[in-house]
Amino acid sequence: MEEDLRKQAVQRHQAGESPKAVYTSLNRSKFWFFKWLNRYQSGATDWYKDLPRTPNTRPSELSLADKNIIIATRNRLESTPYAQIGVSAIKWELHRLGQPLHSDSTINRTLKREGLVKKNKVFPQRG
Protein backbone atom coordinates (compact mmCIF):
# COMPACT_ATOMS: atom_id res chain seq x y z
CA MET A 1 0.00 0.00 0.00
CA GLU A 2 2.64 2.53 1.07
CA GLU A 3 4.96 1.39 -1.72
CA ASP A 4 2.15 1.95 -4.24
CA LEU A 5 1.70 5.52 -2.94
CA ARG A 6 5.39 6.19 -3.43
CA LYS A 7 5.30 4.92 -7.00
CA GLN A 8 2.12 6.87 -7.70
CA ALA A 9 3.63 10.09 -6.35
CA VAL A 10 6.67 9.82 -8.60
CA GLN A 11 4.57 8.90 -11.64
CA ARG A 12 2.28 11.88 -11.11
CA HIS A 13 5.27 14.18 -10.79
CA GLN A 14 6.78 12.79 -14.00
CA ALA A 15 3.46 13.38 -15.73
CA GLY A 16 3.87 17.09 -15.01
CA GLU A 17 1.98 17.57 -11.77
CA SER A 18 3.61 19.94 -9.28
CA PRO A 19 5.22 18.46 -6.18
CA LYS A 20 2.92 20.40 -3.85
CA ALA A 21 -0.19 19.15 -5.63
CA VAL A 22 1.07 15.56 -5.42
CA TYR A 23 1.99 15.46 -1.75
CA THR A 24 -1.03 17.44 -0.55
CA SER A 25 -3.48 15.22 -2.46
CA LEU A 26 -1.81 12.12 -1.00
CA ASN A 27 -1.91 13.68 2.48
CA ARG A 28 1.85 13.43 2.86
CA SER A 29 4.58 15.90 3.78
CA LYS A 30 6.94 17.78 1.50
CA PHE A 31 9.84 15.90 3.12
CA TRP A 32 8.16 12.56 2.35
CA PHE A 33 7.67 13.43 -1.31
CA PHE A 34 11.21 14.63 -1.94
CA LYS A 35 12.69 11.69 -0.03
CA TRP A 36 11.06 9.24 -2.43
CA LEU A 37 11.71 11.41 -5.47
CA ASN A 38 15.43 11.49 -4.61
CA ARG A 39 15.45 7.73 -4.07
CA TYR A 40 13.81 7.26 -7.47
CA GLN A 41 16.35 9.55 -9.12
CA SER A 42 19.21 7.57 -7.56
CA GLY A 43 18.53 4.84 -10.12
CA ALA A 44 18.05 1.97 -7.65
CA THR A 45 15.64 -0.66 -8.92
CA ASP A 46 13.93 -1.04 -5.54
CA TRP A 47 13.91 2.65 -4.63
CA TYR A 48 10.33 2.48 -3.32
CA LYS A 49 11.13 -0.09 -0.60
CA ASP A 50 11.99 0.77 2.99
CA LEU A 51 15.64 0.44 3.96
CA PRO A 52 16.47 -1.74 6.97
CA ARG A 53 16.65 0.18 10.23
CA THR A 54 19.14 -2.13 11.91
CA PRO A 55 22.65 -0.77 12.29
CA ASN A 56 25.30 -2.11 9.92
CA THR A 57 27.75 -2.71 12.75
CA ARG A 58 27.49 -3.32 16.46
CA PRO A 59 30.52 -1.66 18.03
CA SER A 60 29.75 -2.93 21.51
CA GLU A 61 29.52 -6.55 20.38
CA LEU A 62 32.22 -8.85 21.70
CA SER A 63 34.69 -9.97 19.04
CA LEU A 64 34.97 -13.65 18.21
CA ALA A 65 38.56 -13.73 19.48
CA ASP A 66 37.58 -12.24 22.86
CA LYS A 67 34.65 -14.63 23.12
CA ASN A 68 36.92 -17.61 22.44
CA ILE A 69 39.44 -16.41 25.05
CA ILE A 70 36.71 -16.19 27.70
CA ILE A 71 35.42 -19.66 26.84
CA ALA A 72 38.92 -21.18 26.77
CA THR A 73 39.75 -19.59 30.13
CA ARG A 74 36.55 -20.95 31.66
CA ASN A 75 37.24 -24.45 30.28
CA ARG A 76 40.82 -24.37 31.55
CA LEU A 77 39.68 -23.29 35.02
CA GLU A 78 36.98 -25.95 35.06
CA SER A 79 39.50 -28.69 34.28
CA THR A 80 41.72 -27.61 37.21
CA PRO A 81 40.79 -29.33 40.48
CA TYR A 82 39.40 -27.03 43.18
CA ALA A 83 39.58 -23.96 40.95
CA GLN A 84 36.85 -21.39 40.98
CA ILE A 85 35.11 -20.96 37.64
CA GLY A 86 33.02 -17.84 38.11
CA VAL A 87 33.25 -14.42 36.54
CA SER A 88 35.73 -13.12 39.12
CA ALA A 89 38.09 -16.04 38.53
CA ILE A 90 37.87 -15.60 34.77
CA LYS A 91 38.59 -11.87 35.07
CA TRP A 92 41.59 -12.59 37.30
CA GLU A 93 42.97 -15.08 34.78
CA LEU A 94 42.44 -12.65 31.88
CA HIS A 95 44.22 -9.93 33.84
CA ARG A 96 47.09 -12.31 34.67
CA LEU A 97 47.43 -13.24 30.97
CA GLY A 98 47.39 -9.58 29.90
CA GLN A 99 44.13 -9.94 27.99
CA PRO A 100 41.59 -7.11 27.70
CA LEU A 101 39.13 -7.03 30.58
CA HIS A 102 35.40 -7.00 30.00
CA SER A 103 32.60 -6.27 32.43
CA ASP A 104 31.16 -8.97 34.65
CA SER A 105 27.87 -8.86 32.77
CA THR A 106 29.62 -9.28 29.40
CA ILE A 107 31.52 -12.34 30.61
CA ASN A 108 28.42 -13.79 32.25
CA ARG A 109 26.32 -13.19 29.13
CA THR A 110 28.97 -14.94 27.01
CA LEU A 111 29.02 -17.93 29.35
CA LYS A 112 25.22 -18.17 29.31
CA ARG A 113 25.08 -18.06 25.50
CA GLU A 114 27.58 -20.91 25.34
CA GLY A 115 25.69 -22.97 27.93
CA LEU A 116 28.53 -22.87 30.45
CA VAL A 117 26.49 -21.58 33.39
CA LYS A 118 25.41 -24.49 35.55
CA LYS A 119 22.83 -24.69 38.32
CA ASN A 120 24.18 -25.28 41.79
CA LYS A 121 23.16 -28.82 42.76
CA VAL A 122 24.51 -28.64 46.33
CA PHE A 123 22.54 -25.54 47.31
CA PRO A 124 19.46 -25.29 45.04
CA GLN A 125 17.74 -21.94 44.84
CA ARG A 126 14.52 -21.60 46.77
CA GLY A 127 11.23 -20.77 45.19
Number of structural domains: 2
Cα-atom radius of gyration:
28 Å
> How many beta-strand segments?
0
Strand content: under 5%
Oligomer: single chain
Helix content: 40-55%
Which structural class should the secondary elements be placed in? Answer: mainly alpha
Question: Secondary-structure blueprint of this entry?
Answer:
Layout: H1 2-14, H2 19-25, H3 30-41, H4 64-79, H5 87-96, H6 104-113
Structure commentary:
With about 130 residues, this protein is mainly alpha-helical. It folds into two domains: about 1-40; about 65-115. It has helices at about 1-15, 20-25, 30-40, 65-80, 85-95, 105-115. Helix 4 packs across helix 5. The chain is rod-shaped. The model has no long low-confidence stretch (mean pLDDT about 90).
Which terms summarize this structure?
127 residues; mainly alpha; 54% helix; rod-shaped
Brief digest:
The chain contains six helices and no strands.
